[in-house]
Amino acid sequence: TVEIKILDQEPVRKSLEPQAIDLEIIYEDSSIIVVNKPVGLVVHPGTGQPDGTLVNGLVYHFSQLSDINGVLRPGIVHRLDRDTSGVMVIAKNNSAHRKVAAQFEKGAVEKTYLGIVWGKCREKTGSIQEPIRRSRKDPTRYEVGVSGRDSRTDFKVVDSNRYLSVIEFYPKTGRTHQIRVHVA
Fold first, then answer.
1. Looking at residue 8, what is its pLDDT?
2. pLDDT grade, residue 11 (50/70/90)?
3. Nearest to 37 by CA among 88, 75, 97, 100
C-alpha cells in the first residue's frame, strides 16, 4: 500500500511589493548600482521569506532594473547569503546584467571575504580545492563530495590564537556556502 499526502504549497508569486527598505548605495550610474548588503537581509523572496528583501527595496527605489532573472529577481546578478554582509552589483538593464555576469563567470571579479573561524589554522596561506555537492541527508545543506562541482577557495590567515583565527578568503569559484563548506 502506498499512501500519498499532498501538502499545500505556497502560491506562486507573480509580482513584487515595493518596500521602503534603507539601502546603502556605494555607487550608481546609468547601468549599475553597487550596494552594501547588511547581515540579516535576504537578497530575493523565496520560501519562508516572501518580502522584506533587498529586491523589495530595489523595486521601491529604482524604476529600471534588468529582468534577465525574472520578475522576482530584478537586477540580481549574484547573491550573498542572509548572514553575509558585503558589496553587491545590481544591473539596471539587461546589457549591463550580461556584461557583469560574464565577468563573474570568467573569474574577472576578485572577491575577498573576512571570516572568523574556531581554532588555530596550521597554514598561513593556502588553497582548498574540494568539490561541493548538495547533502543527500539534508538538501538545504552542502558538503564536500566527489560527485560535487569543482570548487576552490584561497586563503590567508590575518591573525590567530589557540581558539580563533581571522582569515581572508578569496573564492575562485562561486558555489553555494563554499567558504563555510571548505572551512568545515
1. 66
2. low
3. 88
**Which burial class, exposed, middle or buried, applies to 5 when counting CB atoms under 10 A from its CB (0-12, 13-18, 19+)?**
exposed
The catalytic residue positions are: 81
Instruction: Work out the average pLDDT over 19-47.
Output: 95
Determine the average pLDDT of the residues in 25-43.
96
The rounded mean pLDDT for the chain is: 92
User: The C-alpha cell of 106 is what?
Assistant: 570568467
